[in-house]
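Notes continue from the previous slide.

Worked example: a multi-chain complex. Inputs as given:
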Amino acid sequence: MFQLANKDPLVVRGVTKTFTSKRGRRQVHAVRDVSFTVSRGSIFGLIGANGSGKSTLIRMLSTLVLADAGRVEVFGYDIERDSMEARQLINRVSADPSFFRQMSALENLLFFGRVYGLAGNDVRARAESILDRLGLGRAHQRAMVKELSRGQQQKIAVARAFLTSPVLMLLDEPTTGLDPRSKHDVQEFIREVQRDHDATILLTTHDMDEAEALCDRISFLVGGSIVAEGTSLELRRSVANGRDVEDIDMEDVFMALTGKSVEDDEEEDAFA
Amino acid sequence: MTGIRVPARRFGARQQINLGWAFVERQTNLWKRHWAWEVVWLVYGVVNTLAITFIAKQLTTEGVVSGQRANDLILFLLIGTLVWAYLSAVLDDISLVITWERWEGTIEHTLMAPVPRVAQLIGTAVFGVMHALMRTSLIMLFALPFFSVDLSHANWLSAAALVAMGSLSLVGLGILTGVLPLLYPERGEQMSFMAQAAVLLVSGVYYSVETLPGWLQAVSRLSPATYLLRGIRHALIDGATVGNEMRDLVCLAAFAVILIPLSIAVFSAAERWAKRTGRLKRHG
């Protein structure tokens, strides 16, 4: 056991990504010169409207999209140059839970645990324990994923990510599509992992209450660029314009910084 | 604050085998869930083998060929169809896994796991070879009783050596075709069928390569299936020993030595390109 304690879990410096359409006619600047640092043991929120570059940024941090410029370090490991080391430290929950739908939750988790070097018996015990904790019953754990609801699939996605005890967790809208009870279970689990397992978490969400309740610091992404960063109180102050900060909630901050309401954004999402 | 384990830069052979075996286990679980498909492919394989080999039987009944030549012709086509069933199953399995992962969206989770690409691809290929061997053995078991062929001269040891060495070269070819669905999620699998069709045309599956025009005969030398088919036919029809088969075994070994590292390097380059262009997102 060695210490990596003096390194920040996540350092992002000047990261930029532009996609070019197939015929090369159109360029989309998904992420523009983004920089931030996430300190150890914290939950860092990344908020933005649809198409603001959140998911691309998460994919870049997950080593799934390569940056055009800039660099990302995970505990001092450059995610391109030292990709293998960085990948042992991170895991991710995507907004879209992806599984082999013909296999059971446990069979899926067995595979994903094994490719992170865990022994089969350990994976099974740990998977059952996490799924129990998330409120997915034993019968559902053994059912084919295709037979489960989207919310239940999302719980398995959360379990998949936490199964490997990552020290940096990238959560891309982990509670989207969950009912209030399930959402609460997942949020409690995130808090528990942060508190008891010394995990650092990067969270994107459309739920402003969730962002305020969970995140130590929050960054707003607009058009691929970070336009504001701070604690929820600092952000509310930044858009107060003379109003009492107690009268301002994170939805007001969202509207002021992105130019959209959360409802507009969710509607856009539904039609996307 | 607790300690964080310093991650490994490289994995030892044992760890790589364990990581690769995870892919064999996963494919086995998937295969168990899709047993009905397996039955369909098995029936198709048996029918295809019979349909083609009956052509040789017709020629013997019509007296076009007779005696030992008739037996050899039936064996020639039977071996051709069985080797093709084996070869196409290996190639299909490897590219199907990539297509399937793209379709389900799990490819992103697989590629971000700390698994060396060599462990992932060889693990996938090992299942493909085991699966293809089992399916082809069953096809042979069902098809053989339809033809009273004389296999008394067959040298099964030579045939097994050729299958083993040929499988290694096919693994390289399979990984190369698996690059297509990685790059082209919508058309990649169909493109890999084109690659298979080219192998079918030039490798002497249903006819001797000498039948081909000169330039295609030259192309046939670039297909490992050419050496695999020629070797197995010599072993099962003429009883060639391992020593007699050394030339084809060396050619197949050379293909394996070149194709496996090359295919893994090409796959890694394609993965990098897909990450550069943002093509790993879910399709399907």
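Summary box: Chain B touches chain A at residues 1-10, 15, 18-19, 21-23, 25-26, 29-30, 33-34, 100, 104-106, 108-116, 120, 272, 275-278, 280, 282 (CB under 8 Å). Residues 15-277 of chain B form one domain.
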